[in-house]
Automatic annotation (TrEMBL):
Peroxisomal protease that mediates both the removal of the leader peptide from proteins containing a PTS2 target sequence and processes several PTS1-containing proteins. Catalyzes the processing of PTS1-proteins involved in the peroxisomal beta-oxidation of fatty acids. SUPFAM superfamilies: Trypsin-like serine proteases. It comes from the Eukaryota. GO terms for biological process: protein processing; regulation of fatty acid beta-oxidation. This is Peroxisomal leader peptide-processing protease. GO terms for cellular component: peroxisome.
């Protein structure tokens, strides 16, 4: 048997242990679709979609919902009915959601802090396979590959769809964010790590939205939080693992500190530290093209006023600005990538996403969609307002490009957040190195005011800023 066939059989066996389900909660005219996980002889899911109906008095009691359960067993779809046996609450998750502003109101926070346990009707005990889970939060770190199982839109044609992504951010010990690009009805879907074995590590809470727009990022809880609430509700003893966050080992974590938030009185974005002495690069549109705008950069919890060394105008080819701050401690910096990107290779975008007054540094994984010599880099990473000036990094953490925009269709006013553009660091490397060595600002100005005829084709991005 070939090595490829052996690996396929191995992964087929592993995927058979995935136990996602589709759920439909019904009460009179109300019908709610979401996902869940088969846990021994019960189904576990978040209360985030059903409990608001109870808290707002539209449904008298959560146990008044009837539940239809669809699951896969030996490549067959099995339909079952069930009932909500009980609801368990996590005070830790409730406090965590209150402390981190994701734009959720009090009823939604209370609902997503509770978990619904559904008992399946007419099911013999032990009829379904057990699952392997990890209760150790240390299993997760930023950049870790994860697999989410859900049923998009509650449509049975999409029962138990797989979506790959990465851990974009560890919010705290109980919550994390992924870039798995999930759809409505994903709530309650299980999240796995697959690395030689398959382990359940979390549950989807909700998709992160801004102004009714899906961002592609998803708020999730560590399975330990759910299991702890379950054990407390059932009066079961649970041996608690150490709840310390493991030092993140992914190369992206090592360079993420070089990406900093930058803001003006009216605009917010990201910037990148180019050396340890406070030299930064961002997009000129982030600082309003330097039009007498005060610029502030945050590092290590401290805010610094930034001096604009030089910046491009709206009419210039490259959307670049160079800043200088005088930090109290040396800034982390990144290594430049001196090769041409290869179409299809993995790439990571690191930048800031602004949820109301809460700024989060998020990581998204994608691929290089296209790149030509001396031309811009297109990727499929998730990018949003606030990512401009952030970094595109290759898999080992070397800086590949500066994020400058996304593709925008003017005729239908639609932004394509998974089609974005970056200025390759190769275009900037020599002038930046020359400035660092000599202090001669003309080297940076040559980038901001370049008249390179080949680069003039980049004018097509002037209406696709982030």
């Amino acid at each position: 048997m070939s090595c490829m066939s052996s690996n396929m059989l191995r992964y087929t066996f592993l995927f058979q242990r995935i136990t996602g389900v589709s759920l439909v909660f019904t009460y009179h005219n109300y019908e709610i679709n979401q996902s869940g996980i088969l846990f021994n002889d019960y189904v576990l899911t978040t209360g985030g979609l059903v409990l608001p109906y109870v808290l707002s008095k539209k449904v008298p009691d959560v146990k008044d919902f009837s539940v239809k359960i669809s699951l896969e067993k030996r490549n067959r779809v099995i339909s079952k009915t069930g009932y909500i046996a009980y609801v368990c609450n996590s005070d830790d998750l409730n406090n965590s959601m209150k402390q981190n502003d994701f734009g959720l109101d009090s009823i939604i926070i209370e609902s997503f802090s509770q978990f619904v346990i559904i008992e399946i009707n007419n099911t013999a005990k032990g009829n379904f396979s057990k699952i392997e889970m990890t209760l150790n939060p240390n299993e997760l770190n930023r950049g870790k590959d994860v697999l989410t199982v859900s049923t998009p839109f509650g449509n049975q044609m999409f029962l138990n769809c797989y979506s790959r992504g990465i851990v974009s951010k560890i919010v705290d010990k109980g919550m994390f964010i992924t870039d798995s690009r999930l759809s409505p009805a994903c709530e309650g879907g299980p999240i796995y790590i697959i690395n030689g074995s398959i382990k359940l590590v979390g549950l989807v809470l909700t998709q992160l939205m801004v102004s009714n727009e899906y961002t592609g990022f998803n708020l999730c809880c560590n399975f330990y939080i759910l299991y702890e609430a379950y054990c407390r509700h059932r009066g079961m003893h649970m041996i608690s693992p150490l709840l310390s966050i493991k030092k993140e080992e992914h190369p992206i974590h090592r360079v993420s500190d070089s990406v900093l938030p930058v803001k003006t009185p009216s605009l917010k974005g990201s910037c990148i530290s180019l050396d340890g002495n406070g030299l930064l690069v961002t997009c000129s549109h982030v600082i309003n093209y330097g039009n007498n705008t005060p610029v502030e950069v945050t590092f290590g919890g401290e805010s610094y006023n930034a001096k604009i060394l030089c910046c491009s105008s709206k009419d210039d080819i490259l959307d670049l600005a160079f800043l200088q701050i005088n930090p109290d401690t040396p800034l982390p910096s990144c290594t430049f990538y001196d090769k041409n990107p290869i179409k299809g290779e993995a790439v990571y975008v690191v930048g800031y996403k602004y949820f109301w007054d809460n700024s989060l540094q998020l990581v998204s994984k994608g691929t290089v969609l296209k790149h030509e010599e001396q031309g811009p880099i297109y990727t499929s990473c998730i990018t949003h307002s606030g990512n401009s000036g952030g970094g595109m990094f290759e898999k080992d953490g070397k800086l590949m490009a500066i994020v400058c925009g996304i593709l925008f269709e003017e005729n239908i006013s639609t932004s394509h957040h998974c089609h974005n553009v970056g200025i390759p660091i190769k275009v900037m490397k020599k002038p930046i190195d020359a400035y660092i060595q000599t202090g001669d600002i003309s080297h940076l100005e040559s980038l901001c005011k370049t008249k390179d005829l080949y680069l003039s084709t980049w004018h097509l991005f002037t209406r696709s800023k982030l």
